[in-house]
Amino acid sequence: MDWNTIFFVIWPYISLTIFVVVTVYRSIIRPFSISSLSSQLLENKQLYWGSISFHYGIVLVLLGHLLALLIPRSVVLWNAVPLRLYLLEITGLGLGLWSLAGLLILVFRRVTVRRVQVVTTPMDAVVLAALLVSVISGVLVATLYRFGSYWFTGVFSPYLLSLVTFTPQIGLVAPLPWLIKLHVINNFVLAAIFPFSRLVHIFTYPIGYLIRPWQIVLWNRKIRTQNTQ
Ligand code: HEM
Q1: I need a surface site. Which of 61, 108, 127, 173 has the fewest CB within 10 A?
Q2: Of 107, 122, 131, 140, which is closest to residue 186 (Cα–Cα)?
Q3: DSSP string covering 113-169, please?
Q4: Does any ligand 1 atom lie closer than 6 A to the CB of residue 184?
Q5: Ligand 1 atom having least distance to the Cα of 131
Q6: 57 lines ligand 1 (CB under 6 A)
């Protein structure tokens, strides 16, 4: 058995099995642990800028990945006009850099703000490190191996589909440069650690907010100030 089989067939199946089984198990056994364990009350300013940039950037980048995976032909047709290809590539890269800036702010906050440090677990550090590898390698792939939105549809759309249909086509990924392989292998690491970490909060948004009762927040302090004026 060679390394490509281990990393692009066996590892994805192990990772996706852990992702599905442990996530379902955790939501049934400990439903109230599905949370981001917000640290907003400990520090808010850096969290605001870091979180907004990271989340908006990464959600839009992943939406782009999803479109290339689900409607590859439409993406190829879109890219047939050079101006549209450049626009898509520049937008993807810009969003990647935006999410990287946000992630760096979040890492800086975890490392420098004492109160946030205290509530940071080893798993938080692992998640941040894995996210950094994903985002940095993604941005480097987009910069060094141009027109990824074009070749993604010919390489990764069929490869990921072949995994889902249990007919893994390893020949599609085996010849790729190591940086692109690192990006993919690390994303399966993220999937495997997902159910053990605060990343599970992804499943709380926005569905939970649609069905939960209203939460009414009263700012007592402000009311008292107004009353004394
Ligand atoms: C196995 C799943 C994935 C594959 C096959 C994949 C593949 C790729 C490819 C080919 C590119 C270059 C796109 C371009 O040049 O336009 C890219 C870019 C990128 N990827 Fe991924 N990726 C995957 C999952 C992820 C995940 C889970 C994240 C984040 C947690 C991520 C973050 C990024 C970022 C930030 C970029 C740069 C922005 C962009 O050009 O779109 N990727 N990815």
Answers
A1: 108
A2: 131
A3: -HHHHHT--HHHHHHHHHHHHHHHHHHHHHHHS--HHHHHHHHHHHHHHHHHTT---
A4: yes
A5: 30
A6: no
DSSP label at 69? H
Q: Is the CB of 185 under 6 A from ligand 1?
A: no
Name the residue range of residue 136's domain. Answer: 3-228
pTM of the model: 0.88
The structural domain count of the chain equals: 1
Query: The CATH number of the domain where 136 resides is what?
Result: 1.20.950.20
Ligand 1 site-directed mutation target among 9, 61, 79, 202, most atoms within 8 Å of CB = 61
Question: In the structure encoding, which two tokens stand for residue 79, read together?
Answer: 């890219």
Query: Could you list the pLDDT tens digit for every one of the 229 residues in the chain?
Result: 899 999 999 999 999 999 999 999 988 888 777 777 777 777 788 888 999 999 999 999 999 999 999 999 999 999 999 999 999 999 999 999 999 999 999 999 999 999 988 889 999 999 999 999 999 999 999 999 999 999 999 999 999 999 999 999 999 999 999 999 999 999 999 999 999 998 988 887 655 555 555 555 566 665 555 555 4
Mutating to test ligand 1, I would choose from 16, 54, 65 the residue with most ligand atoms within 8 A of its C-beta, which is 65
